[in-house]
């Protein structure tokens, strides 16, 4: 099984390793029968109100960035999950859901799915990045924090300096989960890592060449010492792009066509203090993305921080 630990035993500092990440990790669960998410603009809300189910089917083609569920992603080697949380309007149960334009699975169900994998694989480690919150009040955050406690308990690693986190340290402490939380709530809870410790610059372009230029510039500037760092190998469609390829969707219109250029950039990268750390992509099963990212770890200087 593809795993971070295949390389990090020799190169123990996780912030120097390269980790596979799936963009909008939960989006394989997007429910076409759900309401439109509260973060969507009025134009989208009106579009759905007029065209109903047909509009949502078209939206799903552009909102779903993954085809594998959490278990399949974990089995393939993904260890970092991009999570966006929302309340659902007029929901009598006041549940929390993953959301990206439309609603996805209940958060507790997704967390339990990941926990089942961790229980079966006690030396595996995952990163959970809660980076967008929609329609959430203080008590919703309290509910989510309690949910994390109930699900993972002592598996969660308290927030410390990133350069102190090694697999050896995590194994000794029996920690398997690092939770990043992009909200002031993180300052109040010991096991929540502040969002600023996981910077993720975003190119916001449909042009593969501009994306690669942006990625390279970000790597050159690099992260501040003591934090992790994300390279988003992701193209973002404009409204005009969606209109032109409305029936085709994100995968066919953008991702598959740009894949060769994006993968070429990934293959030329190196991990380390001034290199890549976490690389994210849409449709992580395409090409050899996962194996390529994992193999980048072997480019580290084997003499650096060698503990064997």
From TrEMBL:
One Pfam family from the record: PI-PLC-X
Top-rank lineage group of the source organism: Eukaryota
UniProt-listed SMART domains: PLCXc
UniProt GO molecular function: phosphoric diester hydrolase activity
One of the GO BP terms on file: signal transduction
Claim: Membrane is one of the keywords in the record: no
The keyword Lipid metabolism belongs to this UniProt entry's keyword annotation: yes
GO cellular component: synapse
SUPFAM superfamilies: PLC-like phosphodiesterases (SSF51695)
Ranges for domain Phosphatidylinositol-specific phospholipase C X: 19-182
InterPro entries from the UniProt entry: PI-PLC_domain, PLC-like_Pdiesterase_TIM-brl, PLCXD1/2/3, PLipase_C_PInositol-sp_X_dom
Protein name, UniProt field: Phosphatidylinositol specific phospholipase C X domain containing 3
Organism annotation: Apteryx owenii (Little spotted kiwi)
């Amino acid at each position: 099984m593809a795993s971070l630990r295949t390389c990090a035993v020799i190169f123990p500092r996780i912030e120097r390793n390269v980790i596979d990440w799936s963009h909008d990790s939960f989006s394989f669960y997007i429910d076409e029968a759900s309401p439109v998410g509260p973060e969507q603009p009025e134009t989208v809300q009106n579009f759905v109100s007029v065209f109903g189910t047909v509009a949502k089917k078209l939206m799903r083609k552009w909102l779903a960035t993954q085809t594998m569920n959490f278990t399949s992603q974990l089995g393939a080697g993904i260890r970092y999950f991009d999570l966006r949380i929302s309340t659902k309007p007029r929901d009598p149960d006041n549940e929390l859901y993953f959301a990206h334009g439309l609603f996805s699975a209940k958060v507790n169900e997704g967390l339990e799915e990941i926990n089942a994998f961790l229980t079966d694989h006690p030396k595996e480690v995952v990163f959970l990045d809660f980076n967008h919150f929609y329609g959430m009040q203080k008590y919703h955050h309290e509910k989510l924090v309690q949910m994390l406690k109930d699900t993972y308990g002592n598996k969660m690693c308290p927030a410390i300096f990133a350069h102190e986190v090694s697999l050896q340290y995590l194994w000794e402490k029996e920690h398997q989960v690092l939770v990043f939380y992009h909200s002031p709530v993180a300052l109040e809870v010991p096991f929540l890592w502040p969002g600023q410790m996981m910077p993720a610059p975003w190119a916001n372009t449909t042009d593969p060449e501009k994306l690669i230029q942006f990625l390279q510039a970000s790597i050159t500037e690099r992260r501040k010492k003591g934090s992790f760092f994300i390279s988003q190998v992701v193209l973002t469609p404009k409204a005009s792009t969606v209109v032109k390829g409305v029936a085709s969707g994100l995968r066919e219109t953008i991702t598959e066509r740009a894949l060769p250029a994006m993968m070429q950039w990934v293959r030329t990268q190196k991990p380390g203090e001034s290199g890549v750390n976490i690389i994210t992509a849409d449709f992580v099963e395409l090409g050899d993305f996962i194996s390529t990212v994992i193999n980048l770890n072997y480019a580290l200087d084997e003499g650096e921080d060698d503990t064997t």
